[in-house]
Amino acid sequence: MIRSEGSIKGSPPRTSASWRNAIMGYLLTSDRRAASMVKEGCCAFLRNKTECAHSITCWPNSSLHSGAFTLTDTQPHAVRSLWTFAVALHALPGQESGMLNLQDEAGMDIPELLFYCWLERRHEHLTAPSQLEEIRRWQARFTAPLRSMRRELKPLLEHDPQLADMRNAIKKAELESEREVLRRLALLERGDGAPSEDAWQTWHGKISPPHAAIVLKVRQAAQRIALE
Q1: Helix H or strand E encompassing 192
Q2: What does the pLDDT average to over 192-210?
Q3: Is 59 helix (H, G, I), strand (E, B) or coil?
Q4: Prediction pTM value
């Protein structure tokens, strides 16, 4: 997840092939097929392209609000349901800052949090938590390094505003990677019955009381979201 930030002024649009090649080279180092979703999103940003099919912007209130992501009607119902649920929950007042605190301070995986909230709202549970292992490898291989690069570039903008477009491309790729995570989560095997409190505790592990309070607020807010 990306915190809302003001736009960087004074940096003209650039579509440097060297930037694209550097980012794409990193993403495609070891897994070309797995990186295709991230590659597509990054290239679309650099080409200033916007798809106009059944689209929803991710994440609301973020600095990427003007960059629409495409969610077509050909996607499985569960994928569309989780996506719209996640966007709606993230847009509720106070949720963005709370989730970012969980991510930055408690090391919590926010797509997984959104997924568990969606399961609870649907009165379903994950039949085997081990299903998350492959998705977590994706997060470690793609999302986490992209997030690290984005953060490292931020303090450099003060002295070199020309890096803003490169950082925005990385931000877009990071969000595309998280969207792919949500797609994969939605396709995991589920059973009837909401996750138990023990399942929640097992998932997030030992966290501080303030962080546990944020998780509870997110869960309570999720119950107000209408399901597709």
Answers
A1: strand 190-192
A2: 94
A3: coil
A4: 0.71
